[in-house]
């Protein structure tokens, strides 16, 4: 766990040093640097791989709602930035709820650190979205009426959805975020 924390801090330090390096005409804000998202994606991939090797004590106690990960690019492009952000924020909230349930139901201590990292990463991405001036997200009272969701019943399915959501909709939102566009002068 300490090793992973050190790796994360080291990655953040590298981002700050790269951002402050003299001679860059118009650096991206560190928050927009996709290397941070790539780090979260790699950790999600590591959790998924670890889960596949788990034989006992690593299941969900009940099916959970998760976001759809497929992207219809025509529909995505028709949405404005706030609608896209709302969809991503809803998905992150669903993932946080599902990962928290998985964490409480899991008895395999080796996988706990992977799940804890995943939960922290979802919180970090949510903070990134807030810092990019997207409207504050208000979670619904229940997941029953949410559009664009489906249910998974295994931890492996949940972690696969988590990975695909980061690689898909979260990446698309950050790539197109107005605050992340470099000035071309």
Task: Please supply descriptive tags for the structure shown above.
two-stranded antiparallel ribbon, 185 residues, 6 helices, mainly alpha, 62% helix, 2 strands, 4% strand
In short:
This protein is mostly helical and 185 residues long. The protein contains 6 helices and 2 strands; from the N terminus they run H-H-E-H-H-H-E-H. The protein has helices at 2-20, 34-52, 73-78, 81-105, 109-131, 155-176; strands at residues 64-67, 149-152.
DSSP strand content? under 5%
> What coarse outline follows from CA principal-axis ratios?
globular
The helix fraction, in percent, is: 55-70%
Main sheet makeup: 2 strands, antiparallel
Q: Give the integer mean of the pLDDT values.
A: 82
**DSSP, total strands:** 2
SSE order, one letter for each helix or strand: HHEHHHEH
Q: Span from first to last CA?
A: 44 Å
Across the major sheet, the strand order is: 1-2
Low-confidence runs of at least 5 consecutive residues = 23-28
**How does the helix and strand content classify structurally?**
mainly alpha
Number of helices: 6
From the alpha-carbon coordinates, what is the Rg to the nearest angstrom?
A: 17 Å
């Amino acid at each position: 766990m300490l090793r992973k924390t050190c790796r994360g801090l080291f990655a953040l330090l590298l981002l700050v040093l790269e951002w402050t390096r003299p001679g860059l005409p118009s650096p991206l804000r560190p928050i927009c640097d996709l290397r941070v998202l790539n780090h979260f994606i790699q950790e999600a991939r590591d959790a998924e791989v670890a889960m596949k090797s788990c034989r006992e004590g690593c299941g969900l106690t009940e099916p959970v709602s998760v976001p759809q990960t497929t992207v219809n690019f025509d529909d995505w492009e028709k949405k404005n930035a706030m609608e896209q952000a709302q969809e991503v924020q809803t998905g992150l909230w669903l993932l946080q709820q599902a990962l928290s349930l998985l964490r409480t139901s899991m008895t395999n201590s080796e996988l706990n650190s992977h799940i804890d990292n995943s939960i922290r990463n979802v919180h970090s991405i949510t903070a990134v979205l807030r810092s990019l001036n997207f409207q504050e997200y208000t979670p619904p009272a229940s997941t029953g009426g949410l559009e664009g969701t489906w249910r998974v019943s295994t931890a492996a399915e949940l972690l696969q959805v988590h990975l695909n959501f980061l690689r898909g909709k979260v990446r698309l939102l950050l790539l197109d975020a107005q605050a992340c566009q470099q000035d071309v002068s």
